[in-house]
Design brief:
47% of the residues lie in helices and 12% in strands. With 438 residues, the protein is of the alpha/beta class. It is globular.
C-alpha cells in the first residue's frame, strides 16, 4: 500500500469518526463544524510547538474540518512559541489561533490584551458541559476563559507491572507512606523498587522536578503550591522543603533506585521503562508522565494493557489531597477573531474532533463527551478517567515558572542527587533566582 493511499484511508476514517460522533450517543451535544459554505476559501493561521507524530495527528484530524468547510489550516511550527508570538504581535500580524504549552504564557498574553475571550467565540454552556471545571480554570484569567486544553498529560503517574505486583503480594499504594512501605518490602525481598531518571538529554533534570512538584501539591495543597510557583513564598518554606526531603528519601535511600546516582543521571526517559518490564524484572516502579505508555508499547508491543503494564496515580502525602494532580497540556487560544478562527476552534475543542484524535492513539482528551470506547486500550482509558476526575489540577511547577528559574531548578536537581548536603544552599539560591525573575 502506498503512503498516499494510507494517508487517504486515515483521513477518511477521521472524517467518518467526526461525522459519527456528531450524530450518535455520547457526543450528541458536542459542537460540530458549521455550514460548509460559511468559511469556504478562508485560511486559519495557527502557531504551535508540535512536530513529528504530534503534528501529523493534528493534521489528520484538522483535515476533516478542511474537507467539510473548504477552508485551510496554515500551520507555523515553532521552537519558541512565546518568542514567535511576541514578534508577530509587535509587528501587528498575530496569528488567528495559537496552541500554547502552558497557562503561564496564556496569562502573559491575556494581560497584554492579545487574546480574544472564548466566551465570544464558543458556546459557553456547551464548553461547561464538555470540560471539567478544574481544567477550565487552567485557561481562565480574572474570571474570563481564554484557553481550552486540547491535549492533556498527567505528570502524576507511576508505571508498574500489575501481574508482577500481584504475584509478589503487593498492593497499589494509596499514600506516600504506603509507597515507601512497598519500597522497603521490595528491598527486603532482594529486589529494587524504583527506576528513576533525570533524564539524559536536553533539559536534563526535568523529570526530577516533576516528582518534587507533585510532592508539594500532594502535601501542601493548591494554595501553597500556587504561592510557591508565583514566588510569593520562599523555596525554604517548611512544606516546600519537606517535599525535597521526601524526594531525597526516594532517590538516595540505599537499594531504592536501580543504578543509584549514576543510573539516575545517565538514563533517558524512554530507557527508564525497560527495567520494569523485562523478565526477570529489574525494577518495580517508574515515576514518569503519562506519555510513558508510548515508551512501554514501543519497547514491549506484546504486553497486555492493564495486565502486563499499567499505572497508578502518584500517591499523596496528605490523604485529604488524593486527586490533586500535576499535569502538562496544550491550550488553544484565539488572537484574531475571524469567522474561520471561530469555526476552527469550535471544531477543535468539540467531542467529534477530540474523539477522532484519541482514535489515532497517543492522545488524551479531557472532554467529557468523548466516549470511553474511543480509547483503544484500558490503560489509555484509565488515564483519561483519572485526569477528568481530578479534584485539583495544576500544571507542573517548572512549566509555570519564569524562564530563568526552570533551567536552574533542573540543574539543581542533578546536583542534589549527587550531594544531598547541598539542599539548603540550593533552596536559598532558587529563592533568590525566583525573586529576581519575578
Amino acid at each position: 500500500m502506498t503512503l498516499r493511499r494510507t494517508t487517504l484511508l486515515v483521513v477518511g476514517l477521521v472524517v467518518g469518526l467526526v461525522a459519527a460522533a456528531g450524530c450518535t450517543g455520547g457526543a450528541t451535544d458536542a459542537p460540530t463544524v458549521g455550514p460548509s459554505t460559511a468559511v469556504a476559501g478562508e485560511q486559519v493561521d495557527v502557531v504551535g510547538l508540535w512536530s513529528g507524530p504530534e503534528r501529523d495527528a493534528f493534521a489528520t484530524v484538522t483535515s476533516a474540518w478542511e474537507q467539510d468547510t473548504g477552508a485551510v489550516v496554515s500551520w507555523q511550527g515553532s521552537q519558541d512559541v512565546a518568542r514567535d508570538l511576541a514578534t508577530r504581535i509587535d509587528a501587528g500580524d498575530p496569528p488567528d489561533v495559537a496552541v500554547l504549552p502552558n497557562p503561564g504564557l496564556l496569562r502573559e498574553l491575556a494581560a497584554q490584551g492579545a487574546l480574544v475571550p472564548l466566551d465570544e467565540v464558543l458556546d459557553a454552556d456547551q464548553v461547561a458541559r464538555d470540560y471539567p471545571p478544574a481544567w477550565l480554570d487552567l485557561g481562565t484569567v480574572d474570571g474570563e476563559l481564554y484557553g481550552v486544553v486540547v491535549k492533556a498529560t498527567s505528570k502524576a503517574t507511576i508505571w508498574y507491572a500489575p501481574q508482577v505486583l500481584d504475584a509478589t503480594g503487593g498492593t497499589v499504594p494509596a499514600t506516600w507512606d504506603d509507597l515507601l512501605a512497598l519500597a522497603d518490602a521490595t528491598v527486603a525481598d532482594g529486589r529494587t523498587p524504583f527506576s528513576l531518571v533525570a533524564p539524559r538529554g536536553p533539559g536534563s533534570g526535568w523529570a526530577l522536578t516533576d516528582v518534587v512538584a507533585q510532592l508539594v501539591l500532594g502535601a501542601c495543597g493548591p494554595d501553597v503550591y500556587d504561592r510557591w510557583v508565583a514566588a510569593e513564598i520562599p523555596w525554604t518554606d517548611p512544606c516546600v522543603r519537606d517535599a525535597f526531603v521526601r524526594f531525597l528519601a526516594l532517590a538516595r535511600t540505599p537499594g531504592y533506585v536501580l543504578g543509584g546516582v549514576d543510573g539516575i543521571l545517565t538514563t533517558s526517559d524512554a530507557e527508564g521503562v525497560v527495567p520494569v518490564y523485562t523478565d526477570p524484572q529489574a525494577a518495580s516502579l517508574y515515576p514518569m508522565a503519562s506519555f510513558a505508555e508510548g515508551f512501554v508499547t514501543a519497547a514491549f508491543p506484546d504486553l497486555e494493557p492493564g495486565v502486563g503494564y499499567g499505572f497508578f496515580p502518584f500517591p499523596p502525602v496528605d490523604p485529604a489531597l488524593a486527586g490533586a494532580t500535576t499535569v502538562g497540556g496544550d491550550l488553544v487560544v484565539v488572537l484574531d477573531d475571524t469567522p474561520a478562527a471561530r469555526s476552527f476552534v469550535t471544531f477543535l475543542v468539540g467531542a467529534p474532533a477530540q474523539g477522532a484524535w484519541v482514535g489515532l492513539g497517543g492522545y488524551t482528551s479531557v472532554n467529557r463527551q468523548v466516549p470511553p470506547d474511543a480509547y483503544g486500550d484500558p490503560v489509555s482509558r484509565a488515564l483519561a478517567e483519572d485526569l477528568m476526575g481530578a479534584d485539583v489540577v495544576r500544571f507542573g511547577a517548572g512549566d509555570l515558572m519564569p524562564a530563568a528559574v526552570q533551567p536552574a531548578w533542573w540543574e539543581g536537581m542533578r546536583a542534589l542527587v549527587q550531594d544531598p548536603s547541598g539542599l539548603d544552599a540550593l533552596l536559598a539560591a532558587l529563592t533568590a533566582t525566583a525573586a529576581a525573575a519575578r
